[in-house]
Specification:
The complex is a heterodimer of chains A (327) and B (394).
Chain A lengths: L25 H32 L6 H21 L2 H4 L1 H28 L8 H22 L4 E2 L8 E4 L2 E4 H23 L1 H11 L1 H6 L4 H27 L1 E2 L3 H16 L4 H21 L5 H15 L14
Antiparallel strand pairs in A: 1-4, 2-3
Helix pairs in contact in A: 1-6, 1-7, 1-9, 1-10, 1-11, 2-4, 2-5, 2-9, 2-10, 4-9, 6-7, 6-9, 7-9, 10-11, 10-12, 11-12
Chain B lengths: L8 H7 L3 H48 L7 H16 L3 H17 L6 H26 L7 H19 L3 H23 L4 H21 L1 H4 L12 E2 L2 E2 L3 H23 L2 H11 L1 H6 L4 H27 L9 H14 L4 H17 L7 H15 L10
Helix pairs in contact in B: 5-10, 5-13, 5-14, 5-15, 6-7, 6-8, 6-13, 7-13, 11-13, 14-15, 14-16
The chains are: A mainly alpha (327), B mainly alpha (394).
């Protein structure tokens, strides 16, 4: 916490991220574009959790970033189990998929418990109370991870094939392809769930008007629990991707990444699911290009500058609708 | 008898359950949490955690059963016996005056009985009390969740540190200047954000503290980055350099008392009532003719100014500062103080500052668990006693 470590230089991606070059090179621009898209799809996945919870409860779930961090730890731990049994050597993608499922289930349980313990008793309280409770939960989970796993970096083993598509001087590594395609798949699944299923419809109804939804017979407690479950599962996916991409996990990654993802959610229009996806990708691009062309030291500051600019000039975000008391 | 705190039926049930229900609360819940912790902590750790939770839950249940004939839960009984008489003391004018006189005498003679280590800790508590009162203006009275408080604190500290090491600015000029620069930043941030809703303000101020931290940490040519600034001049009074905890005790105490009086009077003026009206219902306050934006910005600026002054004290006291002291975590620490003591009242802020500074010193063995307990305490306070230890039920 407090340390500006959200994004490290990926050891697996030997790019020019670290050395900003004054002159314009198209290949570098493309390379940063790809890095930015990768980063952005991770932000988007985390941002979805923020935006869904905010849409329904009007609460900034500060602890969401910690769920993502726990997801990253869990992916390393579960992968360790599969490696011991030798499954990773024989069925790499199957075991990665199983690790993802297990991490998602565990994180979903964390998210559900979080809501039950820290937020549900405060649903009718003054609006500052759940926010402070969320901050408390975030600090708690962060220190819990530190105490349980130690404060040293955890390393994600290099198990993915290291090959990369090379086009001119632009490289796309296998991990980047995996991350981008998996996020597109997950976001598509989420869109389908929210648009087409009964539960998704109940979710949208609850986010529009909780009391009315309750009157129509929607069990809003269950809907809220499901929101937390889905958001946390997506955060687990993002955590696993980041663990694979950067290769190291630490207990404080959740804090900065969480704030950035929240920025992404605000950028796209908080409460708006496609907005969170768009906002995440845009933020990833801005950060990656900003690190290359403006300053790599202040990379973590860009998100906040964007956040402030968006809130001044367009508080509803890019895709958000006008709303009287939000702006 | 009404139960303390705003809690919905679920929580109320959690306390007043029948046995079969309490089985699920006190046995299944710890088991479930143990299960959650299992992947991260391993069998042994998770098992221990579950057992500890279960035992403490059962102990809490037993205590509750033992005292269930009494109007409030066990904890609040002890609390009632200790804190409430003190609070009611403050409510009768004559008694309040007497207790203030007695308290002041005690405070003035205190340093003669303590060694430097204790005195230093108390100085820190006094400094935090000053900061907590400042934050209380913004968060407690006006209801604006300012998570960037440490940024103003840091700005004040750096203004004095830089000017003192470069042009030899004296502490007595640094004090108002640090406060003014911090207030200026507060004004800018306030103008930008105060038209926004509460939780947006929280996240912007959080971003602000992060930006300030990054700037302090990376602008090496000015701030010397993570190395910090050393050999900051100590304050001088008539040729005497204040350097021992004994000296600083009186210096900080003097400014704390000044602040308490000023804030107390402000709180009972038109401005203070306007703040509280804004906290209770902004729209109604606006309808009553209160210039809410202006009042909010004033609260924000005043809070920032007090933080800046606190920062100058900090820099002068330790004679060394680095960006690490002014992170989001510091904001949270000060916030926890006013949450613990009670938002929106001055004695609560002082109580919280003292508790959260002295307790960690007493529990040094639990240093690793300190932040864990901080976090959990914030949640527990919000659920069971959102008005804090000192505050009264809304």
């Amino acid at each position: 916490m407090g340390q500006p470590v959200g994004v490290q230089i990926p050891p697996s991606a030997p790019t020019s991220l670290k050395i900003p070059s004054p002159e314009y090179r198209p290949s570098m621009f493309l390379q940063q574009l790809i890095n930015g898209l990768t980063l952005g799809s991770v932000y988007a996945l985390v941002a979805l959790g923020y935006t869904m919870v905010y849409g329904i409860l009007g609460l900034i779930n500060f602890a969401h970033g910690e769920i993502y961090m726990i997801g990253a730890y869990l992916s390393i731990i579960y992968l360790g189990l599969f490696t011991v049994t030798g499954l990773t050597q024989s069925h790499l993608f199957l075991s990665l998929f199983c690790v993802f499922i297990l991490a998602a289930i565990t994180c979903a349980a964390y998210g559900m418990t979080l809501e039950r313990i820290a937020y549900r008793p405060l649903r009718s309280a003054h609006r500052l109370s759940p926010l402070i409770s969320a901050i408390g939960m975030s600090i708690f989970l962060q220190n819990y991870a530190m105490l349980a796993q130690g404060s040293a970096d955890k390393v994600f083993p290099h198990i993915l094939p290291g090959g990369s598509l090379t086009e001119g001087s632009v490289q796309i590594s296998g991990i980047q392809v995996l991350i981008m395609s998996a996020s597109i798949l997950l976001m598509g699944a989420l869109q389908f769930f929210v648009r087409k299923t009964r539960l998704g419809k109940a979710m949208r109804a609850t986010s529009q008007d909780k009391i009315m939804a309750q009157l129509c017979g929607i069990p809003i407690d269950r809907v809220i629990a499901v929101t937390f479950i889905i958001g946390s599962a997506l955060a687990a996916a993002a955590g696993m991707m980041v663990a694979m991409y950067y290769g190291v996990v630490n207990f404080y990654i959740g804090y900065v990444a969480g704030i950035k993802a929240f920025t992404a959610a605000v950028l796209g229009g908080i409460g708006n699911i496609p907005g969170a996806m768009l906002g995440g990708i845009l933020l990833g691009l801005v950060e990656s290009l900003g690190a290359a062309y403006i300053s790599s030291e202040f990379k973590d500051g860009f998100a906040f500058v964007i956040l402030i600019l968006v809130l001044i000039f367009r508080p509803t975000g890019l895709l958000g609708e006008k709303s009287g008391d939000r702006g | 008898m009404k139960k303390a705190g705003i809690a919905d039926n679920g929580t109320r049930k959690m306390i007043k359950t029948k046995l079969p229900e309490s089985f699920s609360r006190f046995v299944l819940l710890p088991l479930w949490i143990g299960l959650l912790a299992w992947p991260l902590m391993g069998w042994l750790g998770a098992g221990q955690l579950a057992v500890i939770l279960m035992v403490s839950a059962v102990v809490a249940l037993v205590i509750y059963r033992l005292v269930s004939g009494l109007p409030l839960q066990g904890l609040s009984i002890a609390f009632k016996a200790l804190v409430l008489p003190c609070r009611s003391l403050f409510e009768k004018p004559i008694l309040r005056k007497m207790s203030v006189i007695v308290g002041l005498t005690l405070l003035m003679t205190l340093p003669f009985f303590l060694n430097n280590y204790y005195l230093d800790t108390i100085n820190l508590a006094l400094l935090y009390a000053l900061l907590a009162i400042g934050l209380n203006i913004t968060v407690g009275f006006t209801g604006l969740l300012d998570l960037g408080y440490a940024a103003f604190y840091g700005i004040g500290a750096y203004v004095y540190a830089l000017l003192s090491t470069s042009i030899g600015l004296s502490f007595w000029l640094g004090l108002p200047l640090g406060g003014a620069v911090a207030a200026f930043f507060g004004l800018i941030l306030g103008l930008i954000t105060l038209r926004l809703r509460g939780d947006y303000l929280a996240i912007i101020t959080l971003g602000f503290v992060q930006i300030i931290y990054l700037t302090l940490n990376n602008w090496d040519s000015l701030t010397q980055g993570p190395n910090g600034i050393m050999q900051i001049a100590r304050p001088q009074i008539a040729g005497l350099t204040l350097r021992t905890p004994f000296h600083f005790y009186y210096l900080i105490l003097f400014f704390l008392i000044l602040t308490v009086i000023a804030v107390h009077r402000l709180l009972h003026s038109q401005i203070g009532r306007a703040w509280i009206a804004i906290r209770e219902d902004e729209m109604a306050a606006e309808a009553m003719g209160i210039d809410t934006t202006r009042m909010k910005i004033f609260a924000f600026v005043l809070g920032a100014a007090i933080a800046g002054i606190g920062g100058v004290f900090f820099a002068a006291r330790y004679s060394f500062i680095s960006p690490e002291s002014f992170t989001f975590l510091e904001s949270v620490r000060i916030l926890s103080m006013i949450v613990l003591g009670g938002m929106g009242n001055i004695p609560g802020a002082i109580l919280g500052a003292f508790l959260l500074t002295l307790l960690p010193e007493l529990l040094r063995g639990l240093a690793n668990y300190r932040m864990l307990i901080f976090g959990a305490a914030l949640v527990v306070m919000m659920i069971f006693r959102p008005q804090g230890l000192w505050g009264r039920r809304p």
